[in-house]
Amino acid sequence: MADVRTYTLIYVVLLVLGTGKFVFFQFPEIFPEAAAIGGTIILAVIKVLLIAAYYQHLIEEPRAITYMMGVAVFMVFLLTIAAGYSIQ
């Protein structure tokens, strides 16, 4: 199990990543809208991976469970794309 120092470090990284999402949209002259959206998605994926790995303790689980969670997330992604396609 991770110690308090690790959780604090992960918390600070999540805080910085959240601030990065804010910065993307506050400086449109540096980051065009498409770059801001793409950067926000990348930062969100990194945040999800950190939260799942450390706060939900997947990093300590056997690899089979981690792969099962990855497949589940991929399936949700496919369902989201299918739902978006059917709305159009």
Provide a descriptive summary of the structure in words.
- By secondary structure, the protein is mostly helical.
- It has two domains: 1-56; 62-88.
- 81% of the residues lie in helices and 0% in strands.
- It starts with a helix and ends with a helix.
- The mean pLDDT is 89.
Structural class: mainly alpha
Number of structural units classed as domains: 2
- Strand percentage lies at under 5%
User: What percent of the residues sit in helical stretches (DSSP H or I)?
Assistant: over 70%
Distance between the first and last residues' Cα: 46 Å
Order of helices and strands: HHH
The residue-averaged pLDDT reads: 89
- Poorly predicted runs: none
The Rg value, from CA coordinates, equals 16 Å
Please tally the β strands and state the result. Answer: 0
Q: Please give the largest β-sheet.
A: none
Shape: flat
Number of helices: 3
GO cellular component, one term: plasma membrane
Subcellular location: Cell membrane
Membrane topology: Multi-pass membrane protein
InterPro entries: Cyt_c_oxidase_su4_prok
Helices and strands, with pairings:
Layout (H helix, E strand, L loop, with lengths): L3 H23 L6 H23 L7 H25 L1
Helix pairs in contact: 1-2
Short key terms for the protein model shown above:
single chain; 0% strand; mainly alpha; 2 domains; flat; 88 residues; 3 helices
Task: Sum this structure up briefly.
By secondary structure, the chain is mainly alpha-helical. The protein has helices at residues 4-26, 33-55, 63-87. The mean pLDDT is 89.
